[in-house]
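User: I've been trying to design a sequence by hand for this structure and keep getting stuck. Would you show me what you'd pick, starting by listing the structure so we're on the same page?

Assistant: Good idea, let's start from the same input. This is the structure you sent:
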């Protein structure tokens, strides 16, 4: 019997790379997304993860077809850029609906099944931005930080049921996410700092890692007997994360400000 993986946002970028990886590893892959691409080769279920009814419907479809589900990868996400003060509340809430509550909805839907079958792995696609407060992408950073906090709490709560929970933290990755980011810039009081910062981030992303590198890390994580709580992708980002632990926060913020401020 083939193992089963459920992935949100698996039609492009990191999600598609992970779908390809799972398929090569012998998994049956279900993709949940609000848009269906043409000639998609995996099982597709139209689903807006911010909508509880959509998620419940997706779960019911999979549950009827599959006796067991092995992995749920909460990957769907979005980004916004610009000064905090210029971000409209509804835009910020929508970002959290996708990045945080969408992941919550999807994981929550499968937890009862995991408890019943007495095993399962839940992975959340976080970001190195969860560790560092990115200026002019603060809501993205905040949503990923919140995601990790929730994942760690779930990791403790679900451990007695043999349900493992972990987060994957990619650094800059070359995907269409860069072009899809909604930017709200142009406030003259920032003297083009917001524009320059986002251009720097875009350049880093365009020259960043391949999504296949992230997928390969996911492969290694799911093959472990115990899923790590946090897995950072990319050597230099592991160094940055280590320095964040040992250096004074004032110095870390100064460095981040010099790079992106």
């Amino acid at each position: 019997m083939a193992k089963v993986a459920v992935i949100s946002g698996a039609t492009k970028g990191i999600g598609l790379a992970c779908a390809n990886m799972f398929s090569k590893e012998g998994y049956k892959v279900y993709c949940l997304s609000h848009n269906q691409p043409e000639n998609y080769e995996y099982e597709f279920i139209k689903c807006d993860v911010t909508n509880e009814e959509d998620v419940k419907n997706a779960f019911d479809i999979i549950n009827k077809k599959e006796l067991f589900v092995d992995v749920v990868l909460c990957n769907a996400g979005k980004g916004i850029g610009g000064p905090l003060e210029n971000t409209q509340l509804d835009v910020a809430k929508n970002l959290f609906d996708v990045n945080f509550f969408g992941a919550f909805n999807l994981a929550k839907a499968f937890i009862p099944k995991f408890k019943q079958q007495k095993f399962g792995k839940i992975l959340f696609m976080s970001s190195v931005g969860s560790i560092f407060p990115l200026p002019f992408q603060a809501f993205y950073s905040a949503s990923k930080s919140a995601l990790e906090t929730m994942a760690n709490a779930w990791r403790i709560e679900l451990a007695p049921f043999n349900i493992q929970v972990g987060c994957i933290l990619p650094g800059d990755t070359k995907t269409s996410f860069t072009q899809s980011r909604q930017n709200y810039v142009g406030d003259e009081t920032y003297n083009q700092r917001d524009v320059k910062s986002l251009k720097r981030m875009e350049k880093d992303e365009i020259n960043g890692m391949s999504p296949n590198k992230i997928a390969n890390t996911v492969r290694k994580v799911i093959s472990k007997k115990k899923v790590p709580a946090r897995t950072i992708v990319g050597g230099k980002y592991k160094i940055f994360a280590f320095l964040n632990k040992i250096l004074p926060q004032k110095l870390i913020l100064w460095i981040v400000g010099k790079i992106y401020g």
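That's my pick for every position. To get oriented when you compare it with your attempt: Residues 4-260 form a domain with the Rossmann fold fold (CATH 3.40.50.720). DSSP finds nine helices and nine strands in the chain.
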